[in-house]
Structure formats: structure tokens, C-alpha cells
Design brief:
With 539 residues, the chain is of the alpha+beta class. Among the domains are: 134 residues, Alpha-Beta Complex (Dipeptide-binding Protein, domain 1); 210 residues, Dipeptide-binding Protein, Domain 3 (Dipeptide-binding Protein, domain 3, Roll), CATH 3.10.105.10. Helix content is 22%, strand content 21%.
Amino acid sequence: MPEPRFTPNYRVSRRSALRGGAFGIMGIAGAALIGCGDDEEAPGASTASSTQGTTPGASSTQAPTVQRSGTLLLRDTPQTQDLHRQTGTMPSPSLIADTPTAIDVNGETQVYLLEKFEAPDASNYALTFKPGTKFHNGRELTSEDVKLNLERIAGTEGAWLTSVTNGIESIETPDDYTVSIKLSTPYSPMLSLLSELWLLAPESPGWDSTITTPIGTGPFMWNKWVPNDRIYLDAFPDYWQSGRPMIEKIEVKNLEGDTMPALLAGDIHLAGIPVDQRQMVGSNPDIELQLEKATSWQFLSFNNRSPRAPFDDIRVRQAMGYALDKAALNDFANGDTGMVADQMAPPNSFYWSGDIVDPFAKPDPAKARELLSAAGIAEGTLKPVMPVNTNPAQPEVVAAQLREIGVEPVLEVADDVTTEIRLQEYDWDLYYAGSGTRSDIALRYVRMMSDGPNPGLWGGPQNADYDKYVREAWASVDPEERRARYLDAWKVVTDNLFTIVTYHKANTTAIRKEVKGWQTGAMANFNRIDGGVSHITIA
């Protein structure tokens, strides 16, 4: 499959537009599994080129009067009202704020709030926004608003997408709708990553510190947030997509742990569910099941920022790897919706390599015990601390496998927010978790950089070689070279055992029959360019 190159003024088709890292998008849901489709280019190709297009079903003409009805009940665990500070784990921002580009149902990047873009190379981007797009306060979105959003993110510690904004050399606004961005170094994933730039009005209360009431251009307006309970949202009557949304209200409930009781009772209308619950609802006429069209990945991470003895000994980390039974973990968690893996990119996708040999493909308890003995650790004396969020089932399986080699993990269970805070404090040893779908593989690699956002899931690695290779990948406009540099970075991960990948999976979404028109896509967002909450009705 030929890979498109970065060509000045190259006009891309909607099919090939900005494939920027749509890795594994075909997913396990596809008959050919991940990355084995028959597209004209390889999955994962980042193409930043000149194009002009329109959003499917979109118009900047104001919508006629729409008879909206129904309240959609969703589940999320809100971290913050400040959408610039969220760490990529919340699907809720897409309800309130739209983005310059967007990921469609098949994982391809399309223009969204943009009318067109021009990118003569990977350092210069001219973005032209649709006229007539309104914020929830009634004011039109302008190029100056986009500039202020980018500047705010760049100046906000720990903000999402700082990997983009930190490389901006200048931003110019030659007219009300055009933003010209010049980067200090080439950044090839730019246009795909703009699909996660949630644009907010600078009048949003708390703009100069922490936003408390986000004012976006999305299909729903912020009403109020009841901490530890729910967010109330109302339909935006002047939404730029004609005739949308078609429902009146949304309640986003803060639910942790098992959401199945709430789903069966109708207290929420859709939710992600684990594979062991599929049979529970598979024959339920009130529930439909759909698979995401991209994969999440699961891993066992070590505390890399402040490793405590003996986990600063590579032999001890290797012992943990040899104790893992990846196939058993995958079968337990995913059944036929997952596959054993050893890399950040899913098997058979563009950024994956079949040349990498996984030493932990099969468990080897004898080897694990041998390594622990060589490190001077007696059986039963190693008791690593493992933070666990409100769904401890999988960490408990990992702990059981570690006990088979004489290691006694101490599982410390807390709610999701408390666990995330603790991860950033680095007073733990092991953490077993997963990370969801992303618009570009750059947003996976950035998380393990020395200054990456929300690095706690991977123990906060700080490695100059890793950072160098990732930045070289970003700078490359040649997909094959970019792939090679990412694989160099991944070798740093495996040489140091920052984390051990166990599997990739396609998440399952359960939807109640009252929801009409829902289509699960390649991203976890509640709303997107060609589906989600702005495209549904409630019966």
C-alpha cells in the first residue's frame, strides 16, 4: 500500500485526508482485524496538505426552528470544567465544544469548524474557519478567539495538547476567519491533533485561572455542574449544524464502577461495558451492542519517576513481565474483542513492527523466580503497592499471577479521581491500566515524554533519548521515517521496561432502545462530525 508523502499544495481526497495516525482504526470489529483494510494508503499516514472541504451534513446557516424533545442520560467521570485542562480521558467535552478538525466514524480526519486549510509544509498552517459559527453566549467565533485558545493552552501547565502549542513560533490573524500558524519545528500530526482542540470563548468565567463555566460552540450549553453527581446541559438553539441537535437536554452522571445496573434500569442510556457483561444483555431487546472502530491498549506500568527499590533493578521488572499471562488477561477482559499485544500500536497497523520479539509473549514463572533470586529477593518478601480505581477486577487477576512467583501485591482501591492524583505523586510501584483511542499515535507517544501531559499512567518516564526520537518522528514528513523514529522510541521503552503492554481491545458500547440513530465510531467522544448526540433522537 503506497504511503502518501507531504507535498506542497497537495489536494487530498476525503478518503485520504489527514490520515494522521488513524492507527488500528479498522479495529478488531473489522473482519480483517486491525490495519488490514484495502485503503489506498497504509493506516497511520499523517498527511498535512492543502485541501478544501465541507463537513458532512454541516452548514453555517442558522437552523430553522427545531422541535426538540427528550433528555439523554450519559455517564462520565468529570475531572474539571476547564476543558483545556482535561487529560484526554473524558468524552464529555465534545458535547460543549467543537474543534477545527474532527475524526469521523472510520477514524479519518475531516474539516469541522474549518472551511478549509492550507499547509505548504509541516511548519506552516493556514486555517480558515466557517463564518457564522456562534458561541453559546451568542457571539460569533473569530480567528482571534482561536489564537487566544492556543495561547491559553500554551500558558497552562499540564494542559492537553501542549505538545502542539509549545512548538508555535507565531500566530497571525489576517482576517476574522483565518489563523496562520508558524511552528518552530515541523509537526506532521498537527491537523489530526486539532480534532482535540476544544475551542472556548475567552469570556468563559475563570479564563485567566481555571474555567468554571465553559462557553463553547458545541451542540449543548453548560447549565450547571453538581460536583460528584452530574452535569446538566441544554440544547444550543443556534448551533451551526442546521437542524441539530434533536434532543432537548443531557444529564452527564458521575458514575464509577459497574454501570450495568444503571443501564438496565434506564438511569443511563448508553455506556461502555466489559466483555463479561455482553451475554447479560446480548439477548435483551432493550439493549443494542456496538464495538468501537479503534483499539484501546492495556499495560502494566512501573513507577519510573521515583522508582523504589527493588523496582529500580531491571531484573525485577523483567520478573514481573515473565509472571504475566497475557492470553489469560485478554481472555478474561475481552474474549473475542481483544488481542494479545506488546506495542503501543495495535498488531498489523502501520506503526506496529513484526520484527519486535516479545519476551513476555508467554508466561515463564521459573524465569521470573530465577530473576528475583538473582536480585536477592526472597519469596514472599516483595510487596509492591498497586493503586486501583473503582474497577479492580483486572488488577486482581494481575495480582494473582504475580503471587504465583512469590510476589504479594498490595492493592489500594480508591475512586478514579483520587487514583489519578495519586499516580502523579509517584508513591507506588505498579499500576495496571488502559488508555483509550486517540486521533493520532502522537497522542500516545507524548504521554511518556519527560514533559508529557498526565504521565502518571506510565509512571512518568523522563528519558532524553525517548524525547528525541518522538520529536524527530513529529518533525518528519515522510511516513516511513516517522514510523522508524517512533519504533526507536518504543525500543527505549522496552529496553528500560517503562511499561509492559498486555493487549489491545475494541471497547463495547451498550445502547438502550430509546436512543435512535446512535453509531459508535473510532473515538470515545459523545459527539463527532458524522454521529453522536447531535444526530440522535430519544423515543
